[in-house]
Amino acid sequence: MTSDDHEHQHCLEMFEKLSEYIDGELDHATCDEIEKHAKNCVACFSCMETLKRTVALCKKVEDQPIPREFSKKLKEIIQNLPKPTSP
Amino acid sequence: MTAEKNQNRKIVKDNDFDLIQAINSGQAEKFHDLVKRYEQKLYNFSLRMCRNPSDAEDMIQDTFLNVFRYLKNFRYETRFKNWLYKVAASTCIKKRRKSKFAPDKELSLDEFLPNDEAEKPDKVPEWAMLPLDKLLNEELSGIINETILALPKKFRVVIVLRDIEGFSTAETAQILNLSPSNVKVRLHRARLFLRDKLKGYFENDQ
To answer: Strands B9-13 and B2-6: what pairing?
Structure first.
């Protein structure tokens, strides 16, 4: 963040909207403003890129396989359930 | 997924529509096919919400029992998957109330604001620029999962639904009975929390 008051306000405004920007949930005018600001502010650009990377990593985290024993147990429970009656 | 008007009610026909119709028309044995479709995803959702595998197993069991019990009431107003996660999230939140792990505190945006001078970077850190495949390994996956588990549950459930399960803001809001703006606020704070931990991890690594 820069110490300049005017710029700092821009930094704060951008900081609040970064997730919406990454998710494509902002209007064109706001996106343009953010991009313009990020071009001239390394701190905000860095913040944006590290947050983008955080989201991308989160989306790539792999699932664990369900334990076979538990899947088998679940099947048994389901098979032994009483047939539901209409309300 | 297609939608059609039926007696002024919107019906969502997704990939589970025929199977649910069959189960609700008396072929209860097909319920296991529905379980098979979702047990893997739900297991991981539960693990991320409960931490403990045995709690996660209880949660899945309770979720499927509730789904079995109330499937007749499912009105096809959303995708079945969304309804299933609504049941799962509600089961999970009830269970978490009894747990001592991760006290349910607030996360304020101010906590994540970079300090004016101390953290002023002159360039983007390397970890934000490297290809994802070069970055993501077992250790980092573990750190991401641990950090998500350390989030208070109301933030955790949002980041898991949005960034891991891939639901949209509107869908997440519907699943959790929240407003879309509330989902956005919680998601942003959860992501910033995770970003801070990753930043710390990579800085210590260098």
So the answer is: antiparallel
Q: What is the mean pLDDT of residues B142-151?
A: 94
Q: For residues A2 and A76, which has the higher predicted lDDT (pLDDT)?
A: A76
| Partner-chain residue, chosen from B127, B145, B166, that has the shortest CB–CB distance to A61 | B145
Greater model confidence, B8 or B144: B144
Are residues B15 and B82 located together in one domain of the fold? yes
Residue numbers of A between 8 and 47 with CB closer than 8 Å to B: 8, 12, 15-16, 18-20, 23, 25, 42-43, 45-47
User: Is the complex ipTM higher than 0.95?
Assistant: no
Whether residue B186 is found in the same domain as residue B146: yes
Q: Provide the 8-state DSSP code for B106.
A: -
Beta-carbon separation of A50 and B187 below 8 A: no
How far does CA B5 lie from the centroid of its chain? 30
The C-alpha atoms of residue B174 and residue B157 are separated, in whole angstroms, by 13
Instruction: Using the 3D structure, point to which of B96, B117, B139 is the last residue of a domain.
Output: B96
Q: How far apart are CA B63 and CA B74, in angstroms?
A: 14
Residue A1, pLDDT score: 46
